[in-house]
């Protein structure tokens, strides 16, 4: 998938992309009279395609990219443009972005691209809105509640982390990105569907999921041999595998007369919900996507940033050495996790500077006024989530990896700090705490077991999802025990 970033602008893809935009442009219903409105400054760009190509140019995830920076300099933090053939307001204003996210359903609504919804499914949380989204999100929140994190997830997170780390051979070179994805995938399929790592069915699912993700990161051209077409085909295979698991749960529940232990989300949904089979399968696939991509990217970002920050790595290691000495049980407990204070600083700073999610898609459902500007009803609105993370008015020296900035949040600019990596408002990611726990537990065993180094220069890249062009190749070294 990493090379898709580099192939994004081949002539054939650009031509196909322009055709796609022209088609989508003519699907827009009607025109909005904006003559009497004070729109934000900006230009609409080229006919049909607008500024879509420069907006989607891959760049370091620790920056806003050349296009956004140029527009902020020229127009300010709120500006207009044409994106994907639609008139769009782009916001790099942190306060406005929070307002957008918190006004879900009142002033703005979700505007997930049709191509993403087709791959994830019409019943995925990313594509839904209104009451059905609330119902789906409530299921996810209950599945990943603090009580379940404490008793249900924590032991298995540690077990899956140790399986991955114990497979690493001292002196060997491998892709940290691939390993991070393997860890997150194994954990999610275990808890969603009780599929154990290494089994043929699980490996088949992993293979299809990889093809599925390549299509998510490609142009939405439903033509033979395209990545998008292959992703739609892989979606069908994935749903067949999940469907068999679902049917097995339903049969077991029927035979057990409700006495079956509900040890994964699929079993719980099979027994306790009024959702249809299609709704359940789309929900499971969407949660697999969200949980896998967020956690694996976050772990890789931590490995990347810590490798170039020896002081932070040393303090992190000292914290985990202390926890390891003091713990009374063989495995980590909830109390151990709660002692990882500097670890949480590392996690916050990793999410802030790494920017797993750069922007979101919303649409104004009413005419909105903000800071003297009019945002017309029906216009697309794109909040740039990473803008607040890289704002020098909020963070001192924002381009520097500095976990210690999170140790004192009561003075100076730090009073405005907040991480928006997991969105916000009614659509805030229900798996945010699970993702942080995965990072903390993985880092606990990583820093106690290894030192590591990058064997090639690499860096995190935005668009369409966060990735590393070279898949973050690292070499691990045995950690000398004190």
Q: What are the SSEs and their pairings?
A:
Blueprint: H1 2-6, H2 11-25, H3 52-55, E1 59-60, H4 66-75, E2 78-83, E3 86-91, H5 94-102, E4 108-110, H6 114-120, H7 130-143, H8 146-166, E5 173-175, H9 176-193, H10 200-216, H11 227-256, H12 265-272, H13 277-307, H14 310-326, H15 334-338, H16 341-354, E6 362-364, E7 368-370, E8 373-375, E9 380-383, H17 385-389, H18 432-449, E10 450-454, E11 461-462, E12 473-478
Parallel strand pairs: 3-9
Antiparallel strand pairs: 1-11, 2-3, 4-6, 5-12, 6-9, 7-8, 10-12
Question: Which key features would you list for this structure?
Answer:
single chain; 5-stranded mixed β-sheet; 51% helix; Cytochrome p450; 482 residues; alpha+beta; disordered N terminus; 18 helices; 12 strands
User: Order of strands across the biggest sheet?
Assistant: 2-3-9-6-4
Beta strand count: 12
Please describe the biggest sheet, giving its number of strands, its sense, and whether it closes into a barrel. Answer: 5 strands, mixed
The sequence of SSEs as H and E is: HHHEHEEHEHHHEHHHHHHHHEEEEHHEEE
Q: State the distance separating the first and last CA atoms.
A: 40 Å
Give the helix level as a range of percent. 40-55%
Q: In CATH, what is the homologous superfamily?
A: Cytochrome P450
The gross shape turns out to be globular
- State the secondary-structure class: alpha+beta
Residue windows where pLDDT falls under 50 for at least 5 positions: 1-15, 21-30
- Number of helical stretches of at least 4 residues: 18
CATH C-level label: Mainly Alpha
The CATH architecture classification is Orthogonal Bundle
Average predicted confidence as pLDDT? 88
GO molecular function: heme binding; iron ion binding; monooxygenase activity; oxidoreductase activity, acting on paired donors, with incorporation or reduction of molecular oxygen
Main location: membrane
Membrane topology: Single-pass membrane protein
GO cellular component, one term: membrane
């Amino acid at each position: 998938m990493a090379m898709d970033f580099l192939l994004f602008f081949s002539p054939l893809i650009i031509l196909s992309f322009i055709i796609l935009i022209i088609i989508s442009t003519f699907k827009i219903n009607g025109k909005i009279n904006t003559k009497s409105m004070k729109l934000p400054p900006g230009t609409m760009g080229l006919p049909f395609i607008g500024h879509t190509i420069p907006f989607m140019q891959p760049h370091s995830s620790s920056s806003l990219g050349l296009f956004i920076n140029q527009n902020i300099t020229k127009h300010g933090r709120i500006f207009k443009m044409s994106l994907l053939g639609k008139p769009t307001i782009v916001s790099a204003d942190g306060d406005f972005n929070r307002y957008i996210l918190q006004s879900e359903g009142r002033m703005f609504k979700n505007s997930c691209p049709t191509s993403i919804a087709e791959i994830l499914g019409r019943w995925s949380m990313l594509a839904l809105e209104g009451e059905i989204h609330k119902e789906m999100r409530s299921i996810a929140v209950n599945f990943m509640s603090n009580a379940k994190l404490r008793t249900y997830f924590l032991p298995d997170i540690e077990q899956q982390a140790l399986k991955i780390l114990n497979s690493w051979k001292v002196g060997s070179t491998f892709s940290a990105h691939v390993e991070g994805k393997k860890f997150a995938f194994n954990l999610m399929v275990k808890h969603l569907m009780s599929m154990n790592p290494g089994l043929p069915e699980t490996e088949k699912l992993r293979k299809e999921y990889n093809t599925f993700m390549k299509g998510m990161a490609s142009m939405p051209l439903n033509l033979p041999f395209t990545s998008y077409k292959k992703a739609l085909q892989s979606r069908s295979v994935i749903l067949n595998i999940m469907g068999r698991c679902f049917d097995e749960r339903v049969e077991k529940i029927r035979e057990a007369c409700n006495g079956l232990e509900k040890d994964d989300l699929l079993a719980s949904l099979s027994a306790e919900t009024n959702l249809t089979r299609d709704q359940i399968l789309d929900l499971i696939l969407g949660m697999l996507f969200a949980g896998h991509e967020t956690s694996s990217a976050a772990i890789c970002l931590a490995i990347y940033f810590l490798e170039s920050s020896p002081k932070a790595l040393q303090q992190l290691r000292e914290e985990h050495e202390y926890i390891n000495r003091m713990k009374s049980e063989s495995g980590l407990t909830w109390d151990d996790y709660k002692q990882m204070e500097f670890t949480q600083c590392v996690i916050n700073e990793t999410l802030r500077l790494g920017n797993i999610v750069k922007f979101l898609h919303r649409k104004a459902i009413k005419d909105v006024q903000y800071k003297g500007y009019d945002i017309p009803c029906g216009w697309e609105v794109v909040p740039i989530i990473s803008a607040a993370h890289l704002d020098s008015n909020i963070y001192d020296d924002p381009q520097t990896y500095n976990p210690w900035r999170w140790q004192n949040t009561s003075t100076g600019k730090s009073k405005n700090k907040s991480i928006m990596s997991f969105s916000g408002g009614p659509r805030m990611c229900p798996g945010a705490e699970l993702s942080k726990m995965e990072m903390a537990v993985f880092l606990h065993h990583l820093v106690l077991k290894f030192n590591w180094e990058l064997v090639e220069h690499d860096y995190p890249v935005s668009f369409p999802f966060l990735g590393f062009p070279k898949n973050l190749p690292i070499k691990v070294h045995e950690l000398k025990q004190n």
